[in-house]
Amino acid sequence: MILDPKKLVELGVITNYSNLDEQLQPNSFDLTVKRIQVIEGCDGLGKPELEDAQTIDESVFSIWAGKAHYVVFNEIVKIPQNVCGLVIPRSSANRVGIRIDSALYDSGFNDYIGATIYPWVDVKIEVNQRIATMIFMDAAGDRLYKGQWQQHILKTGGKK
Asked: Are 48 and 158 in contact (CB under 8 A)?
């Protein structure tokens, strides 16, 4: 069952949002862009080579068609036991030719949310623009996430 995002905000599962009225949806919570980087290569899973995306000014990223880009969202989640989250694109991103892939976020995950975007056309994306949404669901697992990305960005600021 999809959980009520309003109740999750009240419980502190979702923090660091900028505009609750805009971001709170009936069945999900919209995620806003903090930073975008170009994925230039990879030294194995979990070790991407990232370069800052070109900016038009400090508030607009210029994204090129055919390149994979990594997006860090502003929002921080602290997912409790028996809950998991899934990031999916907003329909507005889909309409302008941006494919967004992310992952399942396990119970116990505590950090910023990220996604990879694949624009089919050149596009400009503003800082704080809503391009993805996160749904939260019941989960029956008896363990919590303890992987390599636990509080990675919170600890490092996203630096290697």
From this structure: no
